[in-house]
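Morning run. Coffee first, then this:
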Amino acid sequence: MRFLSTLAASIIGTLVALGILVLFGFLLITAFVASADTTPSVQSNSVLTMELSGALPERVAPDPIAQALGDGPRYGVHDVRDALKKAAADDRIEGVLLKAHAVAPQWASLQEVREALLEYKESGKPLYAYTGEYYSNEAAYFLNSTADSVFAAPEGFFEFNGFTLQSTFFADMLEKVGVQPTVIRAGEFKSAGEAFTRSNFSEENEEQLQAIVDGQHTVFLNAVAESRGTTAEELQRIKQESPTFTARQALDQGLLDGLLFEDEVMDLMRTRLNKSEGDDLNTITLSRYTRTPASDAGIERGREGTIAVVYAQGQIVAGSDDSPFGGGSMLASADFTDTMRDAREDDRVDAVVVRVNSPGGSASASDAILREIALTQEEKPVVISMGDVAASGGYWIATSANAIVADPLTITGSIGVFGLHLDTSELLSDRIGLTFDQVQTAPLADFLSPTDALTDRERELFQAFVMETYTEFLEKVAEARGMTVEEVDAVAQGRVWTGADALEVGLVDELGGLSHAIDKAAGLVDLEPGTFRIRELPRQKTFVEQLAAGFETQAQALWIRVTGTPGQDLFQNNLRLLRETERMHGTVQARMPYDFTIQ
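And here it is:
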C-alpha cells in the first residue's frame, strides 16, 4: 500500500513539474517573440486609438513576462504624452479616438495627460472620446471631456457624483490582537500616525483633507466646464441635485454628445475626415504607436545637449530595493545614489530633472537621497518635478534644487515627522504565552524594545529624537526656500497642500508638468526647446535580467488572479500596510498618511 501511495505521489509530482516546465517554456518563447517585435509600421489614413484604464504609471519597464500574460500596463504617462506629440506631427495619423474608462484617480498624472490632449488638439486634427460599454468614472471624464465629442454605449455606466477620500485605521484591530501603538509626532497636522491610534480622522486632519479634496474638485470642475462649454456651477448642480450613474442620464445632463456603438463612432470619424464609405480608415493602438520613433513622425531629435530625467518613485527606504522589475513601490537610498551619481558623472548630461513621486518614508534615507541631489547641484543645474505625490520625505529630497516645479494637483508639503513604537507584550505574553528575560549592561540597552511598553525616560528620548528631526527638516526647507524657520513652521506642521496652494505659501516655484520642468532645466544651460536629448534614469532592466528576476513573482501574481476573490485586493493592500508598519517600528518617519486617493 505504501508502494502505491509513493508511486502516486511521484507521478503527481512529475506531472506538476512537467506542467511548470511547459508553462515556463511557453512564457519564455512568447516573451522572446514580444521582445523581438520590430518597429511597427504606420499606414496612411490612420486613427490612433488610445485605450486608457486602471493605473497609469510614470514609466513602464519592458516586461516580456507580463506582456506574455496580458498583465500590467504597457505604457506610462510620458509614453502617452510623447505619442500625442508624435500624432500631432505625423501626417499618417489623421485623428485620435480616446477610450478612457475606469481610470485610476492619479490627478496630477491625469492633468499631464489632459494637457497633452489639449496640445494635440491645436494641430487641428479630430479627437473623439468613447467610453463604450465600460464603467466611466470622473477620472476618465477628466480626460474624455477634452474631446471634440464624447460618446458612450447606450447601456454604459457613467459616474458623475462627486469626490471622496477614504483612509484605513488600524487602532481597533491592534487593540483586539493585543498591540499597543505609541505615536510621537512633530507637527499639528502630521496625521500618518493616526492610522494606528484612532478609528477616524482627527479634527485637524479632516480640515486639511477636506481642503485637498475641495481644491482638486474645483480644478476638475473648472477644467471640464471649459472643455464642455458650460460652467463649474452647473456641473456642481448636477452632482448635488442630479448625480448620474448611467450613460443615458449623462446624455440628458449634457455630459455626453451621443449614445453610439464603436462602429458608429468610427463612421463619424470617417465623415469628419471627409472619407467616403468605401475609403479605408486604418487604426493603430497606443501600445504599438509608442514604439514608433519620433523621427518617423517628422520630429527630429535634438543634438545640442542632454537633459537627464532621474525618477524618484515610491516609499523612501534605506538600502536597495531587490524586488523584481524595480517594483516602483520603493525609493531605495542606495539605488538612487547610484543613479544620481551616474547622471552627475556623465559629461554629456548638461542638467538634471529629478521626477519625484513619493509619499516619503525613512527620514535618514530621505537625507541620504538629498545629499546626492545636493552634490549633483554643485556641478550642474537640478530641477525638481513633482508628480502625483511629493510630500514629507518626498518634499525633504526636493530641498536642494535650482527650482521646484509642481503640478497644480500634486499633493505636497506634509513637512513633519513622527515616530512609532509598537508594544507587543500583551500579544506575545498574554495571548500567545511567550515570555522574555534578559541581561544588559546599561539601563537603556533595550531602548524601544517591542516586547515592552515605553518607559517615561524612553518616551522622553524618543520625543527629543523626533523633534530634532523636525527641526532639521524645518531648517533645510528654510535655507532652500529663503524663508525663516518660523515662516516655514507656519506652513509646515505636517500639513499637506495641493501644488497650486503650495505655490501660494512659497513651497514651490512654478506650476507645470514634467515637460515644463525639462524646459526649465534646459533654459538654465541655454538650451532651446527641441534642441536637446532626454536621457531617462535609472536604466531599464534588460530582458534577461527581468526574466531571471521576475518569473517567480509573475507566477505568484498569475496564481492570485486565477484563485483570488473580489475582496482580495483590499486584503492584500492592508496586509502590505501592516508590513510597512512593522518596518517603521522604532524609527523616525517623514511620510504621508496612508491611502491618499481621491476618487
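The chain has two domains: 46-161+243-297, 306-591. Good start to the day.
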